[in-house]
Amino acid sequence: MSEPILRVEGLNKAFGGVTATEDLYFDVELGEIHAVIGPNGAGKTTLVAQLSGMMAPDSGRIVFDGQVINNLSAPQRSHIGLARSFQVTSVFRDFTALENVALSIQAHAGHSFRFWRYAATDPALTDPARKILGDVGLADRALVLAGNLAHGEQRQLEIAMALATGPKLLLLDEPTAGMGQEESERMRGFLNGIKGRYSMVLIEHDMDTVFSIADRVTVLVYGRAIATGTPAEIRGNAEVRAAYLGEDEVATDA
After folding, report:
1. For the chain: N or C, fewer Cβ within 10 A?
2. Residue 111 near residue 125 (C-beta atoms within 8 A)
3. Beta carbons of 47 and 21 less than 8 angstroms apart
4. Burial letters 156-167, b for 16+ CB under 10 A, else e
5. CA–CA distance, 168 with 198 (Å, rounded to integer)
6. Edge to edge, what strands does the sheet with 18-28 contain?
7. Strand-pair partners of 200
8. Cα 116 vs. chain centroid, distance in angstroms?
9. Secondary structure of 167-215 in the HEC alphabet?
10. d(CA 251, CA 254)
11. What are the CA-CA distances from residue 220 to residues 141, 173, 192 (Å)?
């Protein structure tokens, strides 16, 4: 088996007397969707911040594509292939969908946003941007201002902007946040459509999304991983069900 694209080894982070991640271990295989779930206060937000380079762990290692990245900044991590989407949509609302993606391509190449007008008309940027928009199902929305897109479309655009950096791994932070059932179903369909083409860490609260698209799931409780397994294994894990349902003893499904 090939080396995991991401390994988290003994990750610890505390704020005063509050432990956010505690001796956390998990890995992500190449091409895998690995979901991380847990109740409120489980440490998911802190984990995302440490993986993306927004926050340094107190101890432990993050190994990405064979390289220890603890000391790399968020932009440096982006340039070696780790792309993040945010829980709150972070698109440029006054630019079109096409311009948003073209800007991401331009920025990843190391050019300044000062030249965004060139990005909007340069075929070297707009041609691949149109292809990426097609990949995420927004081909017919390319010339619509991002601020005028529906919420679910804005989330798809944000992922398109992440894809524009040519990532090896996508770190998706609550991609269905704020979505209704229909939008969530479209997002699940989209993520299933790119499954296998990208490795993904999926931080998600929507269990329908998690159990329908994830290859493996890690469950956090108070910063500690209490279980990792397939969706079926996690569904049948009594400790996981007790953590979510607050039960001391939970019988597994027949």
Report:
1. C
2. no
3. yes
4. bbbbbbbbbbeb
5. 6
6. 18-28, 6-15, 59-64, 67-68
7. 33, 170
8. 26
9. CCEEEEECCCCCCCHHHHHHHHHHHHHHECCEEEEEECCCHHHHHHHCC
10. 9
11. 38, 15, 24
Of 121, 202, 120, 123, the residue nearest 162 (C-alpha):
202
Contact 210, 218 (CB under 8 A): no
Q: Which two tokens stand for residue 65?
A: 């594509």
- pLDDT tens sequence across 157-199: 998 998 988 899 999 988 888 888 888 888 888 898 888 889 9
Quick: pLDDT tens for 134-162. 988 899 999 999 999 998 899 889 989 98
**Token reading at 43:** 């440490």
- CA-based nearest residue to 23, from 55, 52, 57: 57
CB-CB contact of 27 with 4 (8 Å): yes
pTM score of the predicted model: 0.87
Domains (range + CATH), the chain: 1-76+169-174+198-254 (3.40.50.300), 82-166 (3.40.50.300)
Amino acid identity at 76: Q
How many whole angstroms separate alpha carbon 141 and alpha carbon 186? 15
pLDDT in tens, 35-72: 999 888 889 989 999 999 999 999 999 999 999 999 99
